[in-house]
Amino acid sequence: MNRFLGHVTNKIDAKGRVSVPAPFRSIIQMAGYTELYALRSLHLPALDVGGPELLTRFDKHLGQEDPFAETADDMSFYLHADGGFLKLDGDGRITVTDFIREHTGISADVTFAGANTHFQMWQPDQFETHRARVRARLAEQRRQRELSAPAGSS
């Protein structure tokens, strides 16, 4: 399987490291990554983390922008100055740095959440709050579609 699915919460050890969950680690190892690109989410207290192709994908989008436009400058700053690489040690652990802690509020535990081609790192309580909100929004959207569906359709 080559998708990041599910979620796992792991403890940060005394040296400030956290183990990437085994299913995620196997995807990372199959791809041959020794470091991961991490970007602070614009709208969530989480990091988006993936292999170098995650940065490449964002850079490709940036390359389609007018290089003289402020949007291109902003995107470049965001991708390159507000992102960074996380090194994996030989046991598949990441050191939880200030870069991670400041944006996410992570302190003792980290929730790793699959996001298909990458994963996210969350403070566990914030992850649970976000998960409840997402489920509620989707349930409401479903309810609204059912209410607006013509009678007799399924």
How would you characterize this protein structure?
The protein is α+β, with helices and mostly antiparallel strands and 154 residues long. Helices cover 43% and strands 24% of the residues. It has helices at residues 22-31, 52-63, 70-81, 98-104, 124-148; strands at 7-11, 17-19, 35-40, 46-50, 83-87, 93-95, 109-114, 119-122. 23% of the residues are buried. The protein contains 5 helices and 8 strands; from the N terminus they run E-E-H-E-E-H-H-E-E-H-E-E-H. The strands form 2 sheets. It has a 6-stranded antiparallel sheet. The protein has one domain (7-147): Transcriptional regulator MraZ domain (Chemotaxis protein chec, 3-Layer(aba) Sandwich). The longest helix has 25 residues, at 124-148.
List its traits.
154 residues, alpha+beta, Chemotaxis protein chec, six-stranded antiparallel sheet, two-stranded antiparallel sheet, 5 helices
Provide the helix percentage. 40-55%
Strand residue percentage: 15-25%
Kindly state the mean pLDDT as a whole number?
94
The counted number of beta strands is 8
**Separation of the first and last Cα atoms:** 33 Å
